[in-house]
Amino acid sequence: MTSSHTTASYKNLAAVVIDTGTGYSKCGLAGEDRTRAIVPTRVGRHLNSEGDKTPYYITEEAEAACSTLIRGVVTDWDALEVLWNHIFYSKLCVEPQELAVLVADSPVSPRTNREKVVELLFENFGVPAMQTVHQALLSLYAYGRTTGLVMGSGHGTSYVAPIITGELAPLNLYRLDVAGKDLSEYLSQLLLAGGQPPPKIDVLTHMKETCCYVTLDMVSELCQLESKNRLDFVLPDKHILSLGAERFRCPEALFKPDVLGLNQPSLPELAQISISQLEPHLQDQLLANVVLEGGTTLLNGFSERVQQELGSTANVLSLPHRAMAAWLGGSIMASLDSFQTLWLSRGEYQEEGPWAIYKYHL
């Protein structure tokens, strides 16, 4: 994993680190322990009088915006360029032509998307060097590890990735099409079923994040519900929504996807499947280092439920700021002396094209 260029060109450059998720993009400078900005991964697009779409614009309004990614995969590269332009020039106030850029690669993104990222950064932003690194590996770095079983759940997708000494295990990655966005939509359905109109999506998402929790025993929780106080949530217009069983029925979809009509294993089941064909000592090593990443894993009770389902031999690690784990791992990795030979340089790109990115198994 070495390249032909020396470290001298980039060692003294501050690098930009970008983790563009389905819901939010985290960005900042390598070597720092906090992001400089977090922006919604969405842009707006007006319709002109003829009904034709006009160029994109940056907006914070969820109702007026369209997503740049769907379930972790870029679906509109023009929109992504507008978003990254906003990040570089407005949020970070940097000139991308002067800085190397490390991009967290979505765990479910097609390999060919790496080529598109390479072209976008070199051709449209003129960066001197760049690199893409698997999000799961970056998350491990945030925990100070290079071996572990990464369990991620963000806005658009959930996944499990076993990584051994910095490399994805042979059986690669397992995904679950239940994540934060799906939970918000399910909460909306539960509210409607209970005769309560759900609020707008941003308010609904905030309600989910602050009021919902993962239970260790659904049957017991349902039996005790009547003896527990319901939780009132005050809407921006001062109306009140009263939440009961919706609070724990909503995130249960991560552990029982069939409630959403999906015939898929749960996240803990995917974890067990992902390591089942590895050597026993590797299974033990991975279960001893189960790391959580992504905003949806911040739901109260999530880590305890994962621990319960994986069993006593598992050790579930959960950083308080694990929603930013991939970005933080990128900040750490891009600032290491040992990483400086791993930048893909503009010269290499010009000589070999975007396929040069595949020389680096990151």
UniProtKB/TrEMBL annotation:
<dbReference type="InterPro" id="IPR004000">
    <property type="entry name" value="Actin"/>
</dbReference>
<dbReference type="GO" id="GO:0015629">
    <property type="term" value="C:actin cytoskeleton"/>
</dbReference>
<protein>
    <submittedName>
        <fullName>Uncharacterized protein</fullName>
    </submittedName>
</protein>
<comment type="similarity">
    <text>Belongs to the actin family.</text>
</comment>
<dbReference type="InterPro" id="IPR043129">
    <property type="entry name" value="ATPase_NBD"/>
</dbReference>
<dbReference type="Pfam" id="PF00022">
    <property type="entry name" value="Actin"/>
</dbReference>
